[in-house]
Amino acid sequence: MGEHNEDQDHVAEPARPTLTTAQARDMTAGLRAAMDDVRRSVAVLAARVHDAHAARIWLPLGHSSWESYCAAEFGISRAQAYRLLDVARSLTAIHDAVAAGPGTSRTRDSDPAVAAALDYGLSQRALIAVSGRTDTVTQLITRRLTALAHSGLQALDEPTVRAVVRQAVRDLRTAPPPPPAESPADPALAELRRVVDDLAATTHQLGELMLEVAPAYLSDTAATDVLAPLCEHIGETLDNGLAARRYAMSGDRRALHGTIL
Q: In sequence order, which residues have a C-beta less than 8 Å from that of residue 49 and are 6 or more positions away?
């Protein structure tokens, strides 16, 4: 009496019959649908938060601030209240960039909740992480959508736009910090550095285009088959295209040694 049997904490569930492949796929589809519903809910919530904050909703209800409004109406903390704003700010900026992009006008909608509900597959953590750099991420998205539209090799359908947005957010979150800007005393050396910096920036843009066509999960060998037609189309060598792709993935200029630099 009074003794505790550890096995009682882990009572075995009745054995279940092994799922068939079809049943497992059906269950997986259900999980995927539930995850999609969660992401859509986040998008709609972000749109509502954006509208409520822009309208200063707390004033007619007698609250002194956004945070006091959220605490009184929803019982959430100050930190949670401002995280909601971060998510709303990021998602609104991203959607505006997509809607303004070439060939993506169909994503414009008069109802912000419907417009924002385009599922980019971004987590709240990712949206919060880029909330302080929305200008940078929207410029990246715009540049990549424009490059794809001009290449004519890939339709800007919803899966493509989603992939562009996700890759841009991922790249921004993982990009190494820029090197400190130190101007050499020698004017000739300073000019040479400027030329190299300009070439590197142009090459990074080329690499971003290569990544959209051959995503980062592909090896150089697998990417070769995909990129060869693109490089021929734009008049670039395949070696340079692969080097630019490696540079866009790593941010390390050593990826360009022996090819472009």
A: 84, 85, 87, 88
CA separation for the pair 114, 116 (Å, rounded): 6
**Which pair of tokens denotes residue 172?**
């921004």
pLDDT tens digits, one per residue of 146-157: 887 777 666 677
**Nearest one of 194, 206, 259, 205 to 234, comparing CA atoms:** 206
Three-class DSSP category at 12: coil
Tally Cβ neighbours within 10 Å of residue 13. 6
Name the token pair of 61: 């209800």
Q: Taking each helix axis from N to C terminus, what angle separates 134-151 and 187-213, rounded to the nearest 10 degrees?
A: 70
Q: What are the angstrom distances between the C-alpha of 41 and each of 74, 90, 124, 240?
A: 17, 15, 11, 43
C-alpha 108/C-alpha 114 separation (Å) is 9
Which tokens hold the place of 125?
Answer: 């953590």
- What is the predicted pLDDT for the residue at 180? 52
H helical segments located in 175-219: 187-213
Please state, in angstroms and rounded to a whole number, the distance separating the CA atoms of residues 148 and 227: 13
Residue type for 152, please? Answer: G
Query: Among 128, 141, 126, which residue's Cα sits nearest to residue 96?
Result: 141
Record the pTM.
Answer: 0.55
Q: How many residues does the chain have?
A: 261
CA distance 130 to 148: 23
Rounded distance, CA 240 to CA 202, Å? 12
CB 125 within 8 A of CB 170: no
CA dihedral 46, 52, 54, 56 (to 10 degrees): -150
Question: Tokens 């505006």 sit at which residue?
Answer: 96
